[in-house]
Structures are given as structure tokens and as C-alpha cells.
UniProtKB/TrEMBL annotation:
Name of the protein described by the UniProt record: Helix-turn-helix domain-containing protein
Domain spans labelled Helix-turn-helix: 87-129
InterPro entries, alphabetized: DNA-bd_dom_put_sf, HTH_17
Domain of life: Bacteria
SUPFAM superfamilies the record matches: Putative DNA-binding domain (SSF46955)
């Protein structure tokens, strides 16, 4: 029981150190419009971070959960630089692989490439795309 409480305290303190993001910061990260971001956050019932802010802010860890990051990876600091990079669009990934964006979207639909679905949009984590590029 004591070890469980200790782990909970560690996780809580790490989460408290995580930043909060405004809707416009999330929009830049996801490369979507602010209206689309608000709609996605509302549809997923994302809680607003408490604080003295004028505009709503959301905990970075909650945004990562929306992007599909789970478990241990949320609290490991060695993964933090990869997780903070903005997500890539299909067009940006297509430039890297020298193909058309439709091909990348088709690969994502068939689960051939790791992707993140945000509403109707598909985004890609830069570190995972680098891993695919290195595998070729």
C-alpha cells in the first residue's frame, strides 16, 4: 500500500510540473484551426486546467492522452522532447517520403504507419516518422 501511495505522489508531482496550453497553442501543435480544436476538446469532454487565467487552458498531459499517449510514457522525462514537438500533416510526411499525401493517408487508414486521428484529421508524430524513415 505504501509503495502505491508513493507512486501516486510521484505521478501527481510530475503532472503538476507539466505545462498547460491555450486553445491557440494546441491549434499550432495540431496544425488545425482554433474552432476545430475547441470542437475536439468539447467532444472529448476535456477538463479545463484550474488557474487564474482569462482564457481556458488544458493540461498538457490531457492533450497527450487525446493524442493516444498512454501509461508510463506520460511520465518519462526522456520521452518529453519527442512528445512536445508539433504534429505533422500528411502533406509534410509525403514530402519526406516523396509521394502524394493521399498515399500517406491511405497507409494511416490501413495502420501501416502510426498516426493520430483528431476529429476528421490525421496527424503524425515526428519521432515516429523519423523511425519509419530510418527503417527504409
Amino acid at each position: 500500500m505504501g509503495k502505491t501511495l508513493s507512486n501516486l505522489r510521484k505521478t501527481a508531482s510530475r503532472r503538476a510540473a507539466m505545462p498547460v496550453l491555450t486553445v491557440s497553442q494546441i491549434a499550432k501543435r495540431w496544425r488545425l484551426s482554433s474552432d476545430t480544436v475547441r470542437l475536439i476538446l468539447t467532444c472529448h469532454d476535456q477538463p479545463k486546467a484550474s488557474g487564474p487565467w482569462r482564457h481556458p487552458r488544458y493540461a498538457f498531459v490531457d492533450i497527450l492522452r487525446l493524442e493516444g499517449v498512454q501509461g508510463e510514457r506520460l511520465t518519462r522525462y526522456e520521452d518529453f522532447p519527442d512528445l512536445t514537438e508539433p504534429l505533422m500533416t500528411a502533406a509534410e510526411v509525403a514530402e519526406i517520403f516523396k509521394c502524394v499525401p493521399a498515399t500517406i493517408r491511405n497507409y494511416a487508414a490501413q495502420d501501416l504507419t502510426p498516426s493520430i486521428r483528431l476529429g476528421g484529421s490525421i496527424r503524425f508524430r515526428r519521432s515516429e516518422v523519423r523511425g519509419l524513415n530510418d527503417a527504409d
